[in-house]
Specification:
Strand order of the largest sheet of chain B: 1-4
Number of strands of chain A: 4
Number of domains of chain B: 1
Radius of gyration of chain A: 27 Å
Number of domains of chain A: 2
CATH topology of chain B: ABC transporter involved in vitamin B12 uptake, BtuC
Shape of chain A: globular
Distance between the termini of chain A: 32 Å
Strand content of chain A: under 5%
Largest interface: A-B, 48 and 46 residues
Oligomer: heterodimer
Chain lengths: 477, 295
């Protein structure tokens, strides 16, 4: 078993190295490939062909990958007869086109190989399990990167994935509070707003500040922070406000807490739109021209790290204390758990991650306006948490992607007039999507109260056990 | 002096008027909370639906039909919401019912958006209350004067209903102790239905008064007055009807004082700040009873 694993790992490493070598080689070899495609220099005789080829060369010189690929396609399509495409050229072209994806694949294979080696040399089940999760995470990231490079960064699929990842982080942060600690808080939109604004304010390009803050003389803040620092700062700002508001509010019981946090979010929204704070918040005007992410990997990595941190917290002693408070406050107190301190901790940490989520959301939207962070936004996130299952991290993550995909993509057709033959499908027009969507949500809330996961987590061992049991059952028949 | 009065009287009048309108919504919140311990987040949307009903029906029917029909349909909606969304969850944890209420609110808002196309609609002018009058040099709509009077009349009628009739007795019993009153033979479901019917009826009346003042109806127009009415109910001590009415008037008037001071941006924020302050210093509100959790 051990040798098998090591051999397998060695094979994977060999594959990965091959892939890496090929794609790194192909990266700079386009001029060479072009020469080999056209050995008789036909391009010098045909002005049309020359023009097309020059376009490829120019795009390559500019360093614009997408443009290069587009002009290359046009060149090859237009002059297929004149070009010689042997298998060597075709392979080089393949690696040039899919270079980044191949590199991602190679890195994924390396991670898997590393995990295999780890599993081979360690006897502890915990190490083996974490090796498995490492592989899974690597697979997700590689898949996202490859998808982005094949279907294009602006496609609907990528939009859904990016927004889904951000919502997943926010939903998990809300679940920490509502599902794990049993505090019914409705202030998430307020903390997201603080995060989004903090991030935006500190990353607007210095040169554009006069333009963005045109009514407030260029604004007060006149420097720029690196994005990651600003994201952390966004989380800290939200956490700080959570600490302040938590002092009085956390002493309240369930529904009073809900309404007080909801009210707090409304106050924040009003304050950020206040004209007197204009030099900082730009009043009720948009904030724009701040740093945004270029690749979908960015929100995935940030959200992934944050969710992993929350998961670690929940599995620690603090997490068990949170769950004890949720299940029975009085019993938990009698067991020596400091109610107020733990509630405050859950509240502050949840808000920190909501602030980070807000910052990511600002990056995703490329503009921020306080007016958009209404209580309806909090409700949406609460419904995601409910659909996923109160008290399940993996449920919240799955529900976020489902929710975003359904509302942005799959149900779009409900908003358009549809005619089949001469029959116009009734009811379909703008707005019907959200109606159908909210009906589905109500059905979940009423008849499927546990949500997708209940309070369980998606775990590979459980799935494996269930599959195994099914197989066993089958063999008895 | 007379300058001071004529400059500030409109704000005071507006405050009293909007306070009365909040009071009519707040009663719906406080009664439902008193009996089910549920913040009925959908109440503000029922209030908006009533406004839309009036807009659409007034376009096709004479007033003496559209007005009562609006009230009847609103009441039916409130009743239906309770039956469909809250009754199946009666034995569920309280958080589930609250989430269901949020879901209903989301559904109603999306439904209104779908039917109306999301555009703001002009609320029809109602005879008797849309005209203008001049008091002490301040010009205002008749509705400003009608609202407090009508509110007080309705509240008195409601208090009579609760203290003098059998249904009222049942309601008081249920809000005191849900389980025991069921054992005593009170039909819980019909008591709850009556509560929702009364709440929706008052919301329908409140919506007519409110939208005569603020004539633009949008799918989310009711969310803010709904929340404020809830704050009023908490302020007065949730479960107490006179408390809700007094709380609503205080909030309506102070909100307009804030506007008079030129801080319109903060008029909403002030309401919630007030709520948080009340909850810190007197969580049971002005007239509420403190509740202790038994082990």
């Amino acid at each position: 078993m051990k040798t098998l694993k090591i051999v397998l790992a060695a094979l994977l490493v060999a594959c990965a190295v091959l892939l890496l070598v090929f794609s790194l080689q192909a990266r700079d070899s386009l001029p060479g490939i072009l020469d080999r495609m056209d050995p008789q220099q036909l391009a010098d005789q045909d002005t049309q062909m020359k023009k097309a080829r020059d376009r490829v060369d120019n795009a390559l010189l500019e360093g614009d990958r997408e443009k290069t690929l587009r002009s290359l396609d046009r060149y090859m399509e237009g002059f297929r007869e004149q070009l010689t495409l042997d298998s060597q050229v075709q392979m080089d072209l393949f690696f040039f086109r899919n270079g980044p994806s191949m590199i991602a694949l190679a890195l994924f294979l390396l991670v898997v190989a590393g995990a295999l080696v780890l599993a081979a040399f360690s006897r502890r089940a915990k190490v083996k399990k974490s090796a498995l999760y490492l592989c899974l995470a690597a697979a997700v990231y590689a898949a996202v990167y490859i998808l982005e490079n094949t279907v294009g960064g602006n496609s609907m699929l990528m939009t859904v994935l990016k927004k889904g990842a951000i919502y997943a982080l926010i939903a998990v942060s809300m679940n920490l509070l509502n599902g794990f600690t049993g505090l019914f808080s409705l202030g998430q939109a307020g903390f997201m707003l603080i995060g989004a604004y903090t991030y935006a304010i500190f990353t607007i390009e210095t040169a554009s500040r006069n333009q963005v803050y045109q009514y407030y003389g260029g604004g007060l803040v006149q420097f720029m922070l690196p994005p990651l620092v600003a994201i952390v700062l966004a989380g800290l700002a939200a956490a700080f406000f959570a600490f302040l508001i938590g002092l009085p509010v956390l002493r309240l019981k369930s529904d009073y807490l809900a309404i007080a946090t909801l009210g707090f979010a409304e106050i924040i929204r009003a304050v950020f739109q206040y004209d007197g704070l204009g030099p900082i918040t730009n009043g009720s005007n948009l904030l724009r021209k701040f740093t945004v992410f270029g690749t979908a990997l960015y929100p995935f990595v940030v959200a992934g790290v944050c969710i992993a941190l929350i998961a670690l917290l929940i599995h620690s002693t603090y997490g068990r204390a949170f769950k004890a408070i949720r299940d029975d406050e009085i019993a938990a107190e009698a067991m020596g758990i400091n109610l107020y301190r733990h509630k405050q901790m859950a509240f502050v940490i949840s808000s920190f991650f909501a602030g980070v989520g807000g910052a990511l959301l600002a990056m995703y939207q490329t503009t921020v306006q306080a007016a958009a962070f209404t209580s309806a936004m909090t409700y949406e996130i609460l419904l995601i948490v409910v659909i996923g299952g109160m008290g399940s991290i993996s449920g919240s993550v799955m529900a976020s992607f489902l929710f975003v995909a359904a509302s942005e993509w799959w149900l779009r057709f409900l908003d358009n007039k549809t005619v089949i033959g001469s029959f116009e499908v009734p009811l379909l027009r703008s707005g019907f999507r959200m109606v159908a969507f909210s009906v589905v949500i109500m059905l979940v809330v009423l008849f499927y109260r546990q949500g997708i996961m209940g309070d369980k987590e998606l775990s590979l061992s459980r799935i494996a056990r269930r599959l195994g049991r099914r197989k066993e059952g089958g063999s008895h028949d | 002096m007379s300058d001071f009065i004529s400059a500030n009287l409109p704000y005071l009048l507006a405050g009293i008027s909007v306070g009365g309108q909040y009071a009519l919504i707040a009663i719906g919140y406080t009664m439902v909370y008193g009996i089910l311990r549920l913040i009925n987040f959908a109440h503000g949307d029922v209030f908006t639906v009533a406004a839309y009903l009036m807009v659409y029906m007034n376009a096709t029917m004479p007033l003496y039909i559209s007005l009562p029909l609006t009230v009847v349909i609103t009441v039916a909606l409130g009743f239906g919401v309770e039956r469909a969304a809250y009754k199946p969850l009666r034995s569920a944890p309280r958080m589930s019912i609250m989430i269901s209420a949020i879901g209903v609110s989301y559904l109603l808002q999306n439904l209104m958006w779908y039917i109306t196309g999301g555009l703001a609609q002009q609320y029809p002018t109602l005879p008797f209350i849309s005209g203008t009058v001049t008091i002490l040099g301040a010009t205002t709509k008749v509705v400003t004067l009608v609202t407090p009077v009508l509110t007080l009349l309705l509240v008195v009628a409601l208090v009579m209903l609760i203290h003098r009739t059998k249904v009222g007795l049942a309601m008081r019993a249920v809000s005191k102790d849900f389980e025991t009153s069921r054992l005593m033979g009170i039909k819980i479901n019909s008591v709850i239905s009556v509560t929702f019917i009364i709440g929706s009826f008052l919301a329908a009346i409140g919506s007519m008064l409110y939208f005569t003042n603020y004539t633009a109806v949008t799918p989310t127009a009711g969310a803010m007055p709904g929340l404020k009415a809830f704050v009023a109910a908490v302020f007065g001590g949730i479960g107490s009807i006179p408390g809700a009415v007094i709380g609503a008037f205080i909030i309506g008037i102070s909100e307009n004082i804030i506007k008079a001071l030129g801080l319109t941006t903060f008029s909403d924020a002030f309401t919630f700040a007030l709520l948080i302050i009340v909850l810190i210093f007197k969580p049971s509100g002005l007239f509420g009873e403190a509740v202790y959790e038994k082990v």
